[in-house]
Design goal:
The protein is α+β, with helices and mostly antiparallel strands. The chain contains 23 helices and 18 strands. A seven-stranded antiparallel sheet has the order 15-12-14-13-17-18-16, with helices on both faces. Strands 5-6-10-8-9 form a five-stranded antiparallel sheet, with helices on both faces. The longest helix is centred in the last third of the chain and has 21 residues.
């Protein structure tokens, strides 16, 4: 372990954590690969040498200067809710925990501007803004366990991004500490480098403060559900809504299986569709499990995890054979008559192409939209792995991308998806997939192969491999395909703001190709 005495002099001995439990707690984010390793009782490959908890900007600056002298990698850490390995620890490095930077510095109600430190938890920030009749409008599903700094680092998108934009659309400026320990604010130079830091995942500097645009908290809410006969017609309806100039708060389309789950939870599924799927699954399961499924709808997921995921292609084929009914959720919010007028026009447009299910499904989604983030741990306990992948493309390429990715992944995992984060020129697809393999080695191999198949399908479809989860380690081997020719620019930024290469090394860009960027992690882990 490094000599940490001089580091303790910077922040105080109590703010340098070296115990085994502390280092485990900060060795990674929620990247599912690391959850698989933890389930296999492999928890040490990425343990940092220490965790440091600065409380002032000056302390962060001095930590960076200490790291330069000692050639110590520094890994920034917010709340650890990321899913791409963006805060993966370094055995020779120190994790810098930024959560003490948790103060709202100023709320300018007249100009609708917010100035805040970035270690604040998203829900705490939004609660205070709403108390004052305002909102940031940024509602990721991790809102309760993620920080403003994490949003900026990964170019986060909240569930209402169609209305409010992504985090890079909200931020006006940031204050940060560079890889040389220099403290500065963006926008004060001839060339504004703000957007170079937003999304850089701590590879160029430590963001400490941010100024963002905020809006009045909406007082009116209009939500509705619509059912469509198939995905193509639903996608076309989504596009027509957005390109007509309407700006819904949320516009979210579920594919066949995801629609079935959403409608069952809302109590709105048609008995014919539900029974067909359950009958097919029951026919594939032992009788005891089938009985559980019949008596308790939530047992479907347990049955799938325990029995069916060993043959995902069969289950995916079953889903493909079902009636292609798709649920679309749309909502408008505001504080004037404009919100009602836009909602009425959108509902009329969608009602002419689909079946109006009323307000129930929309308000059910609104009430339960954060639930999914807290339900994945049980799947790991059951011996499976679950992950998500958010990708994006143009409207004309959207259905093709969806089909290509499903085709590529179906032999390996059970897969479902929804379409959300819709914009004038394109949309995001959010895939959720579940897999199973016997034993740690086989599970890691299955997980890596799944991502390899998926990301290559995205690449070959001419789409983007990332929309709002960031890049971290998991997608770093594909950054060059999303940004052809971008590596020289990143290297230039790196040499300017982190010339000693101590800030979050190995993230965002990889010299390796595809998921082979993970191979070093594999060797260290196993």
């Amino acid at each position: 372990m490094k000599d940490l005495t001089s580091l303790e002099k910077i922040v105080g001995k109590e703010s340098v954590l070296t115990s085994f439990p502390d280092r485990i707690a900060y060795n990674a984010d929620c990247w599912p690969r690391n959850l698989i390793l933890s389930r296999g009782q492999i928890i040490t490959p990425n343990l940092p040498a220490a965790v440091v908890q600065p409380r002032t900007e000056k302390q962060v600056s001095n930590i960076v200067k200490w790291a330069i002298k000692t050639k110590t990698p520094l890994v920034p850490f917010g709340a650890g809710s990321g899913v791409c390995g963006g805060t993966l620890g370094d055995p020779q490095g120190v994790v810098v925990d930024m959560k003490h930077f948790n103060k709202i510095l100023k709320v300018d109600k007249k100009n609708h501007m917010l100035h805040s430190e970035v270690g604040i938890i998203g829900m705490n920030l939004e609660t205070e803004l709403q108390r004052q009749g305002l909102t940031l409008g940024h509602f990721p599903s991790s809102l309760y366990c993620s920080t403003l700094g994490g949003y900026l680092a990964g170019r986060s998108a909240g569930q209402f991004s169609t209305r409010y934009g992504k985090i890079e659309d909200m931020v006006e400026s940031v204050r940060l500490v560079s890889g040389e320990g220099e403290i500065f604010t963006t926008g004060n130079d001839e060339i504004d480098v703000l957007q170079s830091f937003v999304g850089s995942e701590g590879t160029l500097g430590f963001i400490t403060e941010a100024t963002l645009r905020i809006e009045e908290k909406p007082r009116q809410h209009y939500y509705r559900g619509f059912e469509f006969n198939d995905i193509p017609s639903a996608i076309d309806a989504m596009r027509r809504v957005i390109q007509s100039g309407l700006r819904p708060t949320v516009l979210r389309l579920y594919d066949e299986f995801d629609s079935l789950i959403a409608k069952r939870k809302a109590g709105r599924s048609k008995s014919s569709t539900s029974s067909k799927l359950i009958e097919k699954i029951e026919g594939f399961l032992p009788s005891q499990t089938a009985s559980q499924v019949r008596n308790n709808a939530t047992a479907i997921s347990k049955a799938i995890m325990g029995r069916v995921l060993g043959a995902p292609l069969v289950l995916n084929t079953m889903v493909d054979a079902l009636p292609a009914e798709c649920l679309l959720i749309i909502g408008f919010e505001g504080s004037t008559s404009i919100a009602k007028a836009e909602a009425d026009e959108a509902f009329e447009l969608l009602g002419a192409r689909g079946i109006d299910l009323g307000s129930g499904p929309g308000h059910h989604w609104l009430e339960h939209r954060m639930d999914v983030s807290f339900k994945q741990s049980a799947m790991y306990v059951a011996g499976t792995f679950v992950d998500t992948m958010e990708i994006s493309t143009s409207w004309t390429n959207l259905e093709r991308l969806y089909r290509n990715v499903r085709k590529a992944m179906s032999p390996r995992v059970f897969i479902m998806a929804h379409f959300s984060h819709a914009y004038e020129h394109g949309c995001s697809i959010y895939f959720t997939f579940l897999g199973y393999a016997d034993g740690l080695d086989n599970t890691l191999e299955a997980y890596q192969e799944t991502w390899d198949l998926a990301l290559n399908a995205v690449r070959n479809s001419g789409a983007s491999v990332a929309h709002h989860h960031g890049v971290g380690v998991s997608k770093s081997g594909f950054t060059k395909y999303d940004h052809p020719g971008g590596r020289p620019l990143f290297d230039l930024l790196k040499s300017t703001f982190d010339p000693h290469e101590i800030l979050n090394p190995g993230k965002v860009w990889s010299n390796r190709d595809g998921v082979d960027a993970w191979s070093k992690i594999d060797r260290e882990a196993l």
